[in-house]
Sequence to fold (351 residues):
Amino acid sequence: MLYIIMVVILQAIITLAVLLFLAQNRKSFLNMLLLYIVTVILDMGYEYFIINRFGYESILYEIPGSLRIFKGLIFLYITFNFIEFKWRDKLKYLLYPFSMIVLLHTFALSAKLFGYQEADAIIHFYKTYFVNYYIHYWACSLIICIFLLYKYQNKIQNPLFKQFRLFLSFILASMLAFWCSFKFGFDILLFQKIYTLLFLVQFAWILYVYVLTHQEQLKKNMQQPVVEVVIKEKYQYKDLSKIDFEKIKIRIEEFYSESQEYLEDTFTLDHLARHLSVSRTDLTITFNQYLTSNFHEYTNRNRVLRFKRMLEEEPDANVTDLAYQCGFKSKSTFYKYFKKEFNCLPTEYAF
Fold:
């Protein structure tokens, strides 16, 4: 009995740890893929324990592990990351009802294992208001993701989004096939084995996408020094006297004053170059020689100043949330530039 209770509690702790990770690292595509892989492994391990300990027909197996509910949310985060959806961080508010499901799941199973009479009523409530609607939540999440990936496919720059879209379609087809077999009275145990094999295919597929994404990121990092060398060579053969750098400087300052595009965490020097119709080389020279900074320093300084104004307007706002809204990908980066600008931490600053 103690061993079973430990497994149930451990599953709840791991689930809440996944929640915390999701809340703090929702900006990175690689982090989200890795989170999904970890979620799948933990969910499969939990189900394997339930099946082997209680069998397919057990009331415990009829209640899915609470980790399973996060897959749809993770897919939504990844999809919104692909299409650079501006308000994707608002998805974090879905974590609160999911946390309640985790606690109810753990409480229901613990009560059942201890043999409390109220356990059956709790489990009935859990099954009625969550398990019976889980298939709809899961299907809707997948359909929304697939629809958005098709609708905005021309705007998505990441070449791996097609793999991810095909992967979601495969999961949706597998899930619907399993649901139909159950509704039409097919041998559910036989199809469960087939579905398990399909599940392993899903896992291998997403692992493959993760490896490809990681390799793509490594290539970009390796190519970065080469780009800098090319830029330096362009400086040597360009007649800089014909370029009005003062005008470019004014346009840069006006952009950061009037636009909010730099608050996107995906904002790059290329985005600024396209917006101002100025070459990367000319922008780099302007930042270095006329603004005594570089693109990243200048952008993050303006983000910090924007954060200060937003916090003055809304003093009760969450500091971390505002930092993410201002384009910072991590708290450490935000604190670094805030301290550099104001010589103190946000909590120490007197607004």
Confidence is low (pLDDT under 50) at residues 224-234. The chain has two domains: 2-217, 238-348.
